[in-house]
TrEMBL record:
The complex comprises the extracytoplasmic solute receptor protein and the two transmembrane proteins. Its main location: membrane. Residues 24-154 form the Tripartite ATP-independent periplasmic transporters DctQ component domain. One of its GO terms (cellular component) is plasma membrane. Pfam families: DctQ. Belongs to the TRAP transporter small permease family. This is TRAP transporter small permease protein.
Length: 168
């Protein structure tokens, strides 16, 4: 199971990187076609969809890599047992928040599908299509937070954060 989850987070991060390239391609195409006097409708919207997909799909990989911003000033001042308790409390709160985000992201996709919502821009894209990346990204992020919470409850120490590695 560990290998599967680690692979899931890695693949999610890789797909996020592909969407970042999509942002680049859409923006460069938009600039180039404007210079040539050609209008391709929806390029700005697709850049935005790609950026949102990249952001949401990168959440789990970033979290599991220890790259999310974390204020460790209070944690470092506590004894080991207090640090663990505060960390678990924060992770449990994060579980509740990410579960909520995951639920409402999925509901948004279903609502957009049932109401036949389409983009108001030139592209006319059914909105449930780009919203899928948000729902999938939040689901994988929720899994990652629950995974980390379970690991910490079992006494498995967290991976060292990169910002802390620089000073050790």
């Amino acid at each position: 199971m560990r290998r599967f989850l680690d692979k899931l987070y890695l693949v999610s991060g890789g797909v996020a990187a592909v969407f970042m390239v999509g942002v680049l391609v859409a923006v460069v195409m938009s600039i180039a076609t404007r210079q040539m006097g050609v209008h391709i409708g929806g390029l700005d919207a697709y850049a935005g969809y790609s950026m949102a997909a990249a952001g949401f799909l990168a959440l789990a990989h970033t979290f599991k890599s220890g790259e999310h911003i974390r204020v460790t000033l209070l944690l470092s001042a506590l004894p080991a047992k207090g640090r663990l308790r505060l960390d678990l409390l924060a992770l449990l709160i994060a579980c509740a928040i990410t579960a909520n985000l995951c639920w409402f992201s999925g509901k948004l996709v279903l609502d957009s599908l049932s109401f036949n919502d389409i983009s108001t821009g030139d592209d006319g894209t059914p909105l449930w299509i780009p919203q899928i990346a948000m729902a999938v990204g939040t689901l994988i992020f929720f899994i990652a937070v629950v995974d980390e919470t379970i690991r910490r409850m079992r006494g498995i120490p967290e991976a060292a954060h990169r910002e802390e590695k620089h000073y050790e």
